[in-house]
């Protein structure tokens, strides 16, 4: 005999549906609306090849945002990511020295430089009690100056094909869609690793605890200083990966990562991260980076000039921060 749902059961199902909608991060809805807007302006963007191209362009920012979130949830900032991206591109061209055989050890050296930068940022913030905003701003300038000194003021050499394949290469043949970008493959691996670390390990939970209440975390036996150092190292590693992708996509450019650090912070905020720490979602932050790239793409399709695009980005950041503060007050 078929069961007939009662009005109370129907209300219960509807309530659960509404609660489920409320639990969805708003950035996912914003992203869908932006993709629909892009599709109305250029339908080919929503085809598999067009969407993969969007992901390929957004991959450096999405990877950098994943690392930035580890720092933000502890209550800090990493402003050195963009400069580390630029140094990665410059350093790769000089270390490889036009010889493809040098590519792999050069990449290892670049990761070593990135880890060293992350360690320095973390130690300065954790043990010297320098605010992360000041420490990483100083590192930004130091890395920029190091890059100029290393190149003598002008970029030299070029990036070999086996280095650039990470940014512009394709895995082919690929089922159904014929070819698949290496950059998107790297993005998937990095995103999966970041989400796993953030959601499925004690590291992610402890980072959130440190950002929420450092004093209580210390009393609970958590090594606050070590966790902050780990967060900065993870951020630096993702900056090197983002630099490799950006260099592969755009070639040698001393300003390859300029402005990316602010975009990564913006993307994390769009994903619901609280700038004072203690709250954040890795999946939503990465989606925020894609939404930001989708927004830039839509504004380009609409023919808006870059100054206006920057103004729109600033207004979105202010709105996202205000909304996050409003939600935080309501929760409390």
Summarize the structure.
The protein has 332 residues and is mostly helical. The protein has helices at 7-23, 26-41, 48-72, 81-96, 103-127, 132-151, 161-168, 182-200, 202-212, 214-219, 224-250, 260-270, 282-301, 306-331; strands at residues 170-174, 178-181.
Proportion of residues in helical segments? over 70%
Low-confidence stretches are none
> Biggest β-sheet, characterized?
2 strands, antiparallel
| Count, helices | 14
Global shape: globular
Q: How do the helices and strands follow one another from N- to C-terminus?
A: HHHHHHHEEHHHHHHH
Q: What would your notes on this structure say?
A:
The mean pLDDT is 86. This protein is 74% helix and 3% strand. It has a two-stranded antiparallel ribbon. It has 14 helices and 2 strands, in the order αααααααββααααααα. Helix 4 (81-96) packs parallel to helix 6. It has helices at residues 7-23, 26-41, 48-72, 81-96, 103-127, 132-151, 161-168, 182-200, 202-212, 214-219, 224-250, 260-270, 282-301, 306-331, and strands at residues 170-174, 178-181. The protein is globular. By secondary structure, it is mainly alpha-helical. The protein has a domain at 54-258 and 274-280.
């Amino acid at each position: 005999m078929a069961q007939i749902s009662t009005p109370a059961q129907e209300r219960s199902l509807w309530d659960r549906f509404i609660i489920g909608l409320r639990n969805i991060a708003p950035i996912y809805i914003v992203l869908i609306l932006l993709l629909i807007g892009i599709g109305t302006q250029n339908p080919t963007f929503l085809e598999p090849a067009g969407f993969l191209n969007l992901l390929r362009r957004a991959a450096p920012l999405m990877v950098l945002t994943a690392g930035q979130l580890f720092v933000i949830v502890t209550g800090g900032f990493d402003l050195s990511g963009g400069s580390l991206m630029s140094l990665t591109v410059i350093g790769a061209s000089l270390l490889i020295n036009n010889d493809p055989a040098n590519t792999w050890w050069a990449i290892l050296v670049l990761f070593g430089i990135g880890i060293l930068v992350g360690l320095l940022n973390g130690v300065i913030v954790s043990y010297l009690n320098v605010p992360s905003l000041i420490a990483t701003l100083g590192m930004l300038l130091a890395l920029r100056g190091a890059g100029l000194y290393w190149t003598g003021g002008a970029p030299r050499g070029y990036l070999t094909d086996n280095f650039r394949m990470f940014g512009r290469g394709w895995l082919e043949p690929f089922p159904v869609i014929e070819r698949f970008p290496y950059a998107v493959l790297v993005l998937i691996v990095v995103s999966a690793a970041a989400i796993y670390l953030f959601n499925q390990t004690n590291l992610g939970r402890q980072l959130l605890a440190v950002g929420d209440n450092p004093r209580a975390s210390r009393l609970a036996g958590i090594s606050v200083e070590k966790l902050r150092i780990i967060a900065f190292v993870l951020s630096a590693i993702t900056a090197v990966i983002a630099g490799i992708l950006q260099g592969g996509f755009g070639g040698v450019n001393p300003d390859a990562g300029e402005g990316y650090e602010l975009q990564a912070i913006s993307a994390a905020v769009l994903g619901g991260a609280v700038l004072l720490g203690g709250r954040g979602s890795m999946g939503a932050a990465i989606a925020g980076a894609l939404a930001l790239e989708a927004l830039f793409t839509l504004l380009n399709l609409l023919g808006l000039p870059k100054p206006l695009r920057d103004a729109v980005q600033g207004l979105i950041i202010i709105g996202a921060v205000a909304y996050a503060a409003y939600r935080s007050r309501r929760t409390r």
